[in-house]
Write a structure and sequence with these properties.
There is one protein chain. This protein is α/β, with parallel strands linked by helices and 320 residues long. It has 2 domains: 215 residues, Rossmann fold; 93 residues, Rossmann fold. The strands form 2 sheets. The protein has a 6-stranded mixed sheet with strand order 1-2-10-7-8-9, with helices on both faces. α5 links the parallel β3 and β4. α1 crosses α8 and α8 packs across α9. It is globular.
Amino acid sequence: MLTFTGIENARRNLQPHIYPTPLLRCTWLEEKAGAPIYCKLENLQRTGSFKIRGAMNRLMQLDSNTRAKGVVTASAGNHGLGVAQAAKLFGCPATVFVPVDASLLKVSKLRQLGVVLRQEGRDYDEAEVLAQAYADAKGLPFIHGFAQTEVIAGQGTIGLELLEEISNSGGPLCVVIPVGGGGLLTGIAIAIKTKSPQSKIIGVQSEASPAMARALAAGKVVETPIEETIANGLAGRFVAENMLKFMQQFCDEMMLVKESSIRLAMREFYFRQGWRVEGSAAVGAAAILEDKVPSGGTPIVLIISGGNVAEEIFNRSIAF
């Protein structure tokens, strides 16, 4: 069962192994939003994204005999890196399935961490089906990228951190979170709303891959085509049934942003702040640039979810 206590336990488990990432003001976006804006920099986390939090928390729940046999996962890249780093720390073999078009940078990093890498499936959804079948056939634990309780609880530790870091005197916040499968938003929302019930949780996706937005609008899981997107870490044709229910419960508003706005946000973060962020991490800033996030003076927190972007893609994105 997913609870606030589970998130607190995850934080204690993870404390020796992850970085408490900084929460910094972003003045150039404040001018646009008319409110204080803070950025939670998970691009500075181990492996370059928030994903290690959930992956490691899930792995730590397995007993040593089970870990010794190995684990299996599927990923667009960042979750795989989190599983790989956690598995290396605990001496656990890991098999990681990624789609054939996975980021070359993430594939290279996975190979450096010593996993068994399987590049199979035309997209994340196909890679996940193949990985789950492989895990079942081998009798190995499958570590899901977003839909398992322990994974979500690990991501929720971000919410606990930012509540301690922000100078807001306990007032409500507007927390803007990238959404792929929904695990990051769900974990953070439980942490934030338990301590600050009046806070607002906003999810953001690219218009090019709006699976969760479409599912929320329809009230059910629907297959959603994926167009070319710089926010490939959020891309998927389907969402999980349990995650849709969590999103219906915890997401106050869902927004879609243009690919051009995501690229502009990546560029501005780099030239104004020196931050290298991937497209998936820039969608919150893109929503502000499109005037979609309501102001009213409530402090806004953007979750900058990762920074693993290949050099050539990053250079094209920030080019004028």
